[in-house]
Write a structure and sequence with these properties.
6 helices, 14 strands, 279 residues, globular
């Protein structure tokens, strides 16, 4: 259980996300007519930009300085992490949705989460181009704060968010903008759907968390740094994230950091409808 003693921790990672967001937006808002955003390919062929690396330096350095006793795992430095995951660690995606960022679409985020005993217990998701800061911690609920997309400063609009009660006869589903496939369509087809929309990055978790959607099915590869912060926010808002194969909670600290397929949803969604769809 996260206690009041952990509140400064959440505030600290919120501030680091905002600091990283400013560095990201400094690149994003350059004149597109005269200066493109260049992406390099990493060893796994995923893209990385100067904004990813700048945000990574800000967050990793800030976490190490503020919490020297907690290990830090980031997407850009994961190769330095060897051996079994510790019982308590931060996991960071400094810029989730790099493809969205390069194409100057707004659905990219900064993700920071604290994992304890395999579960994300606190997390922050910042969508800097959207001016939205989501935070959540186990046992204390989730919030949404509107921030200025330019200066990324807090204002007084922080409010509690919770999942909504879904209508099983007319579910609102949010899916990946760039990873839609036949398997995902098959899982969606197992439900009675009112509307389906697409969103990028970990914003899909957050749309369910704030009651703007009911279900996010992910039938495609994700890494732990892609999902931990969004899962922390969603679970703090009353939602659930379950593996699609076993329907057990999605856990962290796995060898290789690769996630299985999963469903993120508000209680009341008849997730048992998806059982056996892909077998």
């Amino acid at each position: 259980m996260t206690t009041r003693a952990d509140e400064p921790l959440l505030e600290a990672i919120e501030q680091l996300a905002l600091d990283a967001g400013r560095a990201i937006m400094a690149v994003y808002t350059r004149d597109p007519e005269s200066e493109t955003i260049d992406a390099m390919a990493k060893a796994d062929d995923s893209p990385v930009t100067e904004a990813d690396l700048a945000a990574d330096r800000i967050i990793a350095g800030g976490l190490v300085a503020a919490f020297p006793d907690i290990a830090v795992v980031t997407e850009e430095q994961v190769e330095s992490q060897a051996g079994a995951a510790p019982e308590r660690f931060f996991i960071v995606d400094p810029l989730d949705g790099t493809k969205e960022f390069v194409q100057r679409r707004g659905d990219f985020t900064v993700n920071i989460a604290l994992v304890e005993h395999g579960r994300p217990v606190a997390g922050v998701v910042l969508a800097p181009a959207r001016g939205r800061l989501y935070s959540g911690r186990q046992g204390a609920g989730a919030t949404l704060t509107e921030v200025s997309p330019g200066g990324l400063r807090r204002d007084e609009t922080r409010r509690k968010i919770t999942v909504r009660e879904p209508d099983p006869e007319r579910l609102s589903i949010v899916a990946s903008k760039s990873h839609m496939n036949a398997e995902t369509e098959a899982v969606i087809g197992a439900f009675k759907v009112g509307d389906t929309r697409n969103a990028g990055s970990s914003l899909k978790f957050c749309l369910v968390a704030e009651g703007d959607a009911d279900l996010y099915p992910r039938v495609g590869p994700t890494m732990e740094w892609d999902t931990a912060a969004g899962q922390a926010v969603l679970e703090a808002a009353g939602g659930e994230v379950r593996r699609l194969d076993t329907f057990r909670p999605l856990a962290y600290g796995k060898d290789g950091w690769l996630n299985p397929f999963f469903l993120a949803y508000a209680p009341g969604v008849p997730v048992d409808h998806a059982k056996g769809v892909l077998t």
